[in-house]
C-alpha cells in the first residue's frame, strides 16, 4: 500500500535529544503531526492538537518531510521521532520507507487509540496510554490492536503520572502488559498555553513529583518500572522546538 495523501505537519525541528523514555539522550529530529483524537486535560502540545491551530499545520508529502529532515541533520542519518498530536492518524508509512532507504531510524509516540499496518516498520513504537488525570478513557481493544500492528518493531510503554490515582492505574496497566518495557514519567502541571513559547515551568513541583514517584516505585518493589523525568523540560522548560 502506498500513502499518497499529504501529511499534516505542525512542526519539524532538531536535531535535539530525545527527552523522554527508552531513547532518552539520543540525537533526533522531531516531526510533529497536526491533529489528535484525544484532548488530554494536561496536554503539553496543544498547538498540534487544537483545531484552532489547524491553519499552522502544513500539508506535506513524504518527500518534502524527508527533505526537511535531511536538511536539519545535514544529510547524516539519525533517529526521527514522530510525535504529535496523534501521528497514528496520519499516513506516515511512506516517510518511514523513504527514510529507511536513506539510513534514518524511526520512533513513533502514540496514545494507542489508532492502529496502522505500518507500525511494524517502525524501529520503536512508544505506546502511552492515558491515565485518569487526563480525562480520557482508554479503548483497550484499540490499544491491543496497536500492539498487534506493531509486532516487528521494538515496543515500549510510557505512562505519565500526576497523582496517586494515576499511579494505581499504572500498576494495573503494567500488570496487563508484562511484555512491554515500562517507563514512568511525572506529569508537568504547567504546560504552555497553545501559541505561547514561554519557558516557565514549575521545576520544584516536577522535582517533588519525581521524588514522590521514585519513593512509590521503591516502596512497592516495582523494579521493572523505569522512572525518568522529561529531560528537555528540565533543560529548557516549556520551550517549543527543543
Ligand atoms: C504530546 S504527546 C504526542 C504523542 C501522543 N499523542 C501521545 O500522547 O502519546 C507526547 C508525549 O508527551 C506526554 N505528555 C503530554 N503532556 C504532558 C505533560 N503535561 N506532562 C508530561 N508528559 C506529557 C504524552 O503522554 C506523550 O507520552
Ligand atoms: N526533546 C524532546 N523530547 C521529546 N520527547 C517527546 C516529545 C514530544 O513532545 O512528543 C519531545 C519533545 O518535544 N522534545
Ligand atoms: S493524546 Fe497526546 S497529543 Fe493528544 S491530547 Fe493527549 S497528550 Fe496531547
Ligand atoms: Mg512534548
Automatic annotation (TrEMBL):
Its cofactor is [4Fe-4S] cluster; S-adenosyl-L-methionine; Mg(2+). Substrate binds at residues 17-19, 32, 83. Residues 23-238 form the Radical SAM core domain. S-adenosyl-L-methionine binds at residues 42-44, 85, 128-130. It catalyses: 6-carboxy-5,6,7,8-tetrahydropterin + H(+) = 7-carboxy-7-carbaguanine + NH4(+). Keywords: 4Fe-4S, Iron, Iron-sulfur, Lyase, Magnesium, Metal-binding, Queuosine biosynthesis, S-adenosyl-L-methionine. [4Fe-4S] cluster binds at residues 36, 40, 43. PANTHER family: 7-CARBOXY-7-DEAZAGUANINE SYNTHASE. Belongs to the radical SAM superfamily. 7-carboxy-7-deazaguanine synthase family. This is 7-carboxy-7-deazaguanine synthase. It comes from Roseovarius litoreus. The gene is queE.
Amino acid at each position: 500500500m502506498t500513502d499518497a495523501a499529504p501529511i499534516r505537519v505542525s512542526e519539524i525541528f532538531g536535531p535535539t535529544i530525545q527527552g523522554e523514555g527508552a531513547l532518552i539522550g539520543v540525537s533526533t529530529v522531531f516531526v510533529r503531526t497536526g491533529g489528535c483524537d484525544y484532548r488530554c486535560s494536561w496536554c503539553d502540545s496543544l498547538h498540534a492538537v487544537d483545531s484552532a491551530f489547524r491553519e499552522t499545520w502544513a500539508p506535506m508529502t513524504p518527500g518534502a518531510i524527508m527533505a526537511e529532515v535531511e536538511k536539519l541533520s545535514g544529510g547524516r542519518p539519525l533517529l526521527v521521532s514522530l510525535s504529535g498530536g496523534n501521528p497514528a492518524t496520519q499516513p506516515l508509512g511512506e516517510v518511514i520507507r523513504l527514510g529507511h532507504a536513506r539510513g534514518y531510524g524511526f520512533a513513533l509516540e502514540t496514545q494507542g487509540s489508532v492502529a496502522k499496518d505500518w507500525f511494524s516498520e517502525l524501529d520503536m513504537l512508544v505506546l502511552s496510554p492515558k491515565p485518569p488525570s487526563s480525562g480520557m478513557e482508554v479503548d483497550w481493544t484499540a490499544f491491543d490492536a496497536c500492539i498487534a500492528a506493531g509486532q516487528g518493531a521494538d515496543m515500549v510503554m510510557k505512562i505519565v503520572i500526576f497523582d496517586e490515582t494515576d499511579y494505581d492505574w499504572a500498576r494495573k496497566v503494567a500488570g496487563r502488559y508484562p511484555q512491554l518495557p515500562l517507563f514512568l514519567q511525572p506529569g508537568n502541571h504547567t504546560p504552555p498555553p497553545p501559541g505561547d513559547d514561554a519557558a516557565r515551568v514549575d521545576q520544584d513541583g516536577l522535582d517533588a513529583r519525581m521524588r514522590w514517584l521514585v519513593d512509590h516505585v521503591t516502596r512497592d518493589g516495582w523494579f521493572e518500572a523505569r522512572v525518568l523525568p522529561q529531560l528537555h523540560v528540565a533543560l529548557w522548560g516549556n520551550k517549543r522546538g527543543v
